[in-house]
Amino acid sequence: MTTSAGTAGRPNEDFAGAVPGAAVLLDGAGIPGTDSICSHGVAWYTHRLGGALLGRLSRGDGRGLPTVLADAIDEIAAEHRGTCHITNPGSPQATVAIVRAHRGRLDHLVLADSFLVLGQVRGGPQVVTDEREVTARHICAAPLDGIPRGTPEYDRIRASCAEALRARRNQPGGYWIAKDDPHAAEEAVTGSRPLRELDSVALLSNGASRIVSPYGLTDWPGLRELLAADGPAEVVRRVRRAEADSPVGPAAPVPDDATVVHCTDLARFEVGDATGPAGRS
């Protein structure tokens, strides 16, 4: 696994970790610098939630992944509910991706816009993501069409669009993300595949998935090949190079935290459960 902060001098708000038979990746979000809302910050939230998830997954008890996530969200919410305004739309939150080998199957969960790339033994990769945040973002950003970037009007409308997007967060008809409400876990995208059908699985934060879109440096089958040949660090290196080569200006992409987890040798989990030997990461 590899993770890289998008901006020097700022905390990396992604989190990645693994225990035997399971791996998690979180991509933190929230309004930076709002200590009046939460004194802990986004990086604190992603690391605490990620640790809580790994602790539960390490038990190997086979509980449903939405239940595992809901309990972890509830635990971390309780840790700072008394000191922070955790119901505020700008309080710390995170996307979540989880994979777990259990009883001959690979169970997976995605909440918000992280990505899973399931390497199928036969055929191309299966890409799993939660598109609802992207859809809501496009809808809310529609008033910006045709408005020149860098103008006062653009900044004013953009602020309004951001407020409209926050209003759709963890709401029916909007999108769902790990934050203060454990019921969000029930809205996650979930699935399960026989391990014998897979040879690998990759988890990518939104910043790392830029290698496919918007940069178009490869496609999903090409990403699978790149990971197999050169590993996660090469994916992040190419994203950073694309960011550095982008034209300077208001439309230039803002570097984002980028994280990749690559799990292989999945066949070894076909016998036994999640407490068996760990695949290479």
Your description of this structure?
This protein is an alpha+beta fold and 281 residues long. It has seven helices and ten strands. The strands form two sheets. Strands 1-10-9-6-7 form a five-stranded antiparallel β-sheet. It has a five-stranded antiparallel β-sheet with strand order 2-3-4-5-8, covered by helices on one side. A hairpin with a 2-residue loop joins strand 4 (93-102) and strand 5 (105-111). Helix 3 (132-141) packs antiparallel against helix 4 (152-167) and helix 6 crosses helix 7. The protein starts with a strand and ends in a 17-residue tail after the last strand. Mean pLDDT is 91; it is low at 274-281.
List strands and helices in order, with pairings.
Blueprint: E1 2-4, E2 14-19, E3 22-29, H1 42-57, H2 65-80, E4 93-102, E5 105-111, E6 115-120, E7 126-129, H3 132-141, H4 152-167, E8 189-194, E9 198-204, H5 206-209, H6 220-230, H7 232-245, E10 258-264
Antiparallel strand pairs: 1-10, 2-3, 3-4, 4-5, 5-8, 6-7, 6-9, 9-10
Name the features.
single chain; 281 residues; alpha+beta; 5-stranded antiparallel β-sheet; 7 helices; 23% strand; disordered C terminus
**Helix-residue proportion:** 25-40%
Largest sheet composition: 5 strands, antiparallel
The chain-level structural class is: alpha+beta
Overall pLDDT level: 91
Rg calc: 19 Å
What sort of overall outline do the alpha carbons produce when their principal axes are compared?
A: globular
Beta strand %: 15-25%
Secondary structure tally, helices: 7
Number of E-type strands: 10
End-to-end separation:
6 Å
